[in-house]
What does this fold into?
Amino acid sequence: MSKMLALCGALALAAVGAADARPFTATDLARQERVSDPRISPDGRFVAYNVRSTDWEGNRGVNALWVLERAQAGAPPRLIRDQEKAATSPRWSADGQWLYFLSSRSGSTQVWRTPASGAETRQVTSLPLDVAFYRLAPDGRALVVAVSVHPDCDTLSCSKAKDDAKAKEKTTGVLYDSTTTRFWDTYLDGRFVELFAVKLGGDTPPTDGVALTRGYQADIVTKPEGNDSSFVISHDGASVFFAAAASGSSQGMGPLRSLYAVPLDASTAPRRLDPAAQTSDGELALAPDGSRLAYLSTKGSVFTAPRARVMIRELATGTTHELAPAFDRSPSALAWSADSGTLYAVAEDLGQNRIFALNAATGAVKPLTGDGHVASVDVAKGVVVYSRDALDSPAQIFELRGGGARALTHVGADSMAQTPFSAFEQFEFTGWNGESVHGYVVKPADYQAGRKYPVAFLIHGGPHGSFGNAWSYRWNPQVWAGMGYAAVMIDFHGSSGYGEAFAKSIVGHWGDRPLEDLQKGWAYALGRYSFLDGDHACALGGSYGGYMVAWIAGNWTQPWKCLVNHDGVFDIRLMSYSTDIPGFQQAQNETPTWEKPEEVERFNPIDHVAEWRVPMLVVHSGRDDRVPLDQGMGAYGAAQLRHVPSELLYFPDENHWVLKPQNSVEWYATVQAWMKRWLEAG
It folds into this structure.
């Protein structure tokens, strides 16, 4: 079965006329405004959200906050803070009188607020260190802030003094004795993201806070994609609940995260809520009536995509139970309805990312959104607001009310009307083990029936990821379509959004089951879509996708004219020791490398270099600690030593992702030149 999905690009094309349309480019993508983090006021009247624009000359993104009034259809939104002050993280007070946000207007990142009218702004905190995340107490008299500090300090000023003293030292050596020495793109320096209580209400912004997690040696908010769902303040304002790994544990080994409670006045140390639990818990959501705490819980290694179960904890009794145990999806975010009767969960589902409504009493599950990718959700007064993107649309803010969806924003509509997006279709075929596998095909921008087009065969990372119906600001199929290529993506076994068993099936099988899906998906797509030119195709992948490209180079060479390997794993044996998360490779290999090296070598690309012959472009970054630089250098060196046509694109200032706008454009330009060289060669 296949399903054609609706396009917004056709409407945009009609608006400007076919003669004015042009292909979508990497520069268009890099300059695009990015909408995120919608927050609805408690009375349902206003929606605040973030828009990130591009400072092209500064080679960076800049943030601003906007507020729109829902009831005034067509009314323009209101700018709360100008872009140069980097305003982010809008949060409404419980009475809806104030909109709080983070801004660097004062020279450091602090909490500010403005009335709903936006008439003026006022600095709320003046702390000695940057605020990373914050939560407002229900009565508005206190904040809980997450700040990177030295765990042995009682106050923020103590940590600031230690930072200042360290900056004056002339020595640069660092001695480690833990498994993890670095994480993501930063070497560990003894600081952790901890929680502090900050009292409000005085005439001047408070300048310090009280440590709620003093001595705790673990990040309360994990990097790089953690958020304020790691902690919540109780309804009565007396306690803070948070999720964290055990103090002193190595985050690179995937330790369990447990639930804790600590008094807001720090009168006692944090208390683990369930000392016997053998689960990893997080994504906290407190019911508006204050009676229940919802959270997500996984069993087994967090590195093998266990299903995230929705759990409910009765705060009065401490009893817990799973809500909707038959729901075989893994939510990533939770939000309560205003009456505490419904729990909204955002979860991947067959190539989409939907909002599901879970009845808090019965566990009945109902999908509320259809196609597309929901990134965030907020709820008030019977209204659900969310950000939604898709393969043919960057994120916009929508609302659900009365069973229907309505777009609230149209950010960037004028510029997107000049570059209408290409049509796409989801398809389904029989893959490994006779099981259904899904994929997508995107037509080239200049598509004409009866013609054949060269193909970009895109392979996602993770490996527990998805190339589904979602917009991307890094690997975006619409850019390849704008180059004149058709794009094909396969959600092979191991991908997320198809159930726990499907995701876990890749564990111990990196090189066989996904490869079989890719081969069968490629054959199916060629048979179904006559416009695909199978004789002129390039396979491209990043991270695990880069691993698969290196694996393909020695195990599936026949159809490909070229390969692109971005930040890919080349030597699993070395990767299992050198990555910033060595526990990941152990879990994926189902064994420590030293115990069963034959299992590691079973699917190791480095052992198949003798078969390499397809031209390969290798891309790697100097600050990538997830897949360290030696992996990319090894792949490039192997290709060069084998006299395989090859090039290396190196970014010294990027991490596992290429984030700077001009670097992103250079990335695409280099890839395009590489593909043109080999796909037009014959």
